[in-house]
Amino acid sequence: MATYSSTAEAVGSEQANRDAMFKKVFEDRIANLTPDGKKLLQRIKFVKKDKQLGGSYSQPVVLGMELGITHAGSDEGAFALELPVPGNIKEAVVKGYQMVLRSTISYAQAQRSAGAGEKAFEEAHKHVVGSMLDSLQKRLEIQCLYGGVELAKIVGAPVGNDITLVQSEFAEGIFAGCVGMPIDVYPNGSSTLRLSTVIQNINTTTRVLTISASTSGAAISTIAANDRIFFKGSFGKEMMGIHAILSNTSTAFNIDASLFDLWKGTLYAPATTSLLSMAIIQSAVAAAVPKGLDSDVIVLCNPGHWDDLLKEQTDLRRHDASYDSSEVKGGAKTIKIYTQAGLAEIVPSIYVKQGYSYVLPLEDWKRVGSTDITFNRPGGEGKFFKDLEAHSGTELRAYSDQAIFCLRPGRSVLISNLKVTA
C-alpha cells in the first residue's frame, strides 16, 4: 500500500506541475493571441457578464424615443404640459452558447519536457495549444458571422461523392483546412436532418466538396438543390450570428422585431447582382442613416470584394490630377471612404460569403458570455490536463460560452445580391 500511495502521489505531483507550468507559460497569453485573420474577434470585444436565472444575460436596449415634448410660444405663461409619452426601453435576453474543443497529448510528448523548465515545456506543447486556439477561434469567428444560418448551400444533386456549393453562399475560409470535418446536411427550410457525412477533399476554386458515404441518415444520392450544410451537431445549438441578427424579422433576444422597426437590421441590395462598389456602400450607409447611423463603420466583405473595390479606386485615380504616368504604384494597405454617416473602413475577411457584405458600427456590437476562449475547465480552475482512461496520454480542452449581440440592429446593414470578379 505504501508503494502504491507513493506512486499515486508522484503522478499527482507531476500533473500539478504540468498544470502550474501551463498556467505560467500559456494562460495569460491566450487573450493576446488572436490572429489577424479573425477580424471580428479582434474588433468586437468580449464583455464578461454574470448569468441570471436560466443561464441568460439581460441587456437594456432603447427601441423608441421619448415623445412627451410640449411646445409653447414666447408669450405663454404657465402653459399646460403634454402627457408623458415614454420611450420604449426593453430588456434583451442574451443566451451564451457553449463550444468545447478536445485534443490529446501523449505521455511520451509530455515526459520529454518534464522538469526541463519553461522553454522545454513551451516547445513540447505550443503546437497543440496553438492549433487548438486557432481552430476554436476560427469556429467562433464563423459563428459570429453565420451562427443560426447555414455554412453553405448546395447547387444540386451530387456527382458521385462530389457536391458543388452555391457561389453567393460560399466563403473560402470557412472550408479551408477542413478535410476530415464532419458535417450535417439539412433540406432547405426543414429542421429534419437529411444526413451526416465527412469532408474528404475541398477545391475552393471550383467550390466542390468531396464527401464520404453517409455516416448516418439518408444516402448522399438524396442530396438536392439548396440543401444546407452545418457543422455536425450544431443545428439549433448556435448563437445568432451577424447575418441572422440583421435578417431577422421576428423575435430575437426576446424582443419582437415586427413591433419595433429599430430592432430590424437595415437591408440593402442593388437591383441586379453586382460587384461591391463605392456607390453601393454609400447607398447602404444612407439606408441606415434614418435609423440613427451617425458614426464610423467597418464594411466587412469577402476578399474578392476588396479586390474589386481596389481596382475601382485604381481606375478612378488614373483619371484625376494626382496621376503621374512616370511612377506606377499599385495596391493598398487599407481602403477608407467618407460617407454621410462618417468614415467607412473596408475590412476583407475570408469568412464572408461572396454574395454579402456587412456595414457595422462597432460600438453597437459586443460579445457577451461567462467566458471567452479559455483552457480552464469550469469548476476545475487551474487544472488543465486530464488523464485518458483507455490511452497513454492526457486530454486538453478549450472552452467558450458566449454570444454576439447588437444593441441597435437598425444602424447596421446587410448588403446582398453581390458577386466577385470571376
What does this structure look like?
The protein is an alpha+beta fold and 422 residues long. The chain is 23% helix and 27% strand. The protein has helices spanning 2-25, 39-43, 107-111, 118-146, 172-175, 242-247, 278-288, 303-317; strands spanning 46-48, 56-62, 89-95, 97-106, 152-153, 162-164, 182-186, 195-203, 208-211, 216-217, 228-231, 251-252, 255-256, 266-268, 274-275, 297-301, 335-338, 343-348, 357-360, 365-374, 385-387, 393-406, 413-415, 418-419. Strand 21 and strand 22 (393-406) form a beta hairpin. The longest helix is centred in the first third of the chain and has 29 residues, at 118-146. The protein is globular and about 90 Å long. Mean pLDDT is 87; it is low at 1-11 and 323-330.
Write the layout of secondary structure elements.
Elements: H1 2-25, H2 39-43, E1 46-48, E2 56-62, E3 89-95, E4 97-106, H3 107-111, H4 118-146, E5 152-153, E6 162-164, H5 172-175, E7 182-186, E8 195-203, E9 208-211, E10 216-217, E11 228-231, H6 242-247, E12 251-252, E13 255-256, E14 266-268, E15 274-275, H7 278-288, E16 297-301, H8 303-317, E17 335-338, E18 343-348, E19 357-360, E20 365-374, E21 385-387, E22 393-406, E23 413-415, E24 418-419
Parallel strand pairs: 1-20, 14-23, 15-24, 16-18
Antiparallel strand pairs: 2-3, 4-22, 5-11, 6-9, 7-8, 7-11, 8-9, 8-10, 12-13, 16-19, 17-18, 19-23, 20-22, 21-22
